Amino acid sequence: MKKLFLLLLLLPLVACGPTKNALIAEQSYYQAKVDMARKASAMPLMEILAGDKEKPMVFYNVASIRVFQPPQGGMSDGLTQYQQRDYSTPWI
């Protein structure tokens, strides 16, 4: 009886976790988000060049400011927050 009670108690804890495919899908999603963020941070939005390299970088020492066009689409990458969906029919 104790073994049956223990089995019924532990079964939901073991059987109700995410599947291996669900874990891989979630990991792939967040890895794609990290890759897109790295790619976006590699493109500068502006560049400030100093007039005199020996002087500190203050407002009167700025020779030029170049502003680059942001990537097309802005910060919208088309991905929304990862959501776990259960496609099985409800059993209740």
Radius of gyration: 27 Å
How many individual helices? 2
Q: What structural category characterises the helix and strand content?
A: alpha+beta
What spatial order of strands do you see in the largest sheet?
Answer: 1-2
What is the CA-CA span between the terminal residues?
A: 27 Å
The average pLDDT is 79
Task: Give the overall shape, derived from the CA principal axes.
Answer: elongated
Q: What fraction of the residues are assigned to beta strands by DSSP? A: 5-15%
State the helicity in percent bands: 25-40%
Low-confidence stretches: none
Largest sheet, if any?
Answer: 2 strands, antiparallel
H/E order of the elements?
HHEE
> Tally of extended strands?
2
What can you see in these coordinates?
- The chain is an alpha+beta fold.
- It is built from two helices and two strands, in the order ααββ.
- It has helices at 2-15, 20-41, and strands spanning 46-50, 62-67.
- It has a two-stranded antiparallel ribbon.
- The longest helix is centred in the N-terminal third of the chain and has 22 residues, at 20-41.
- The model has no long low-confidence stretch (mean pLDDT 79).
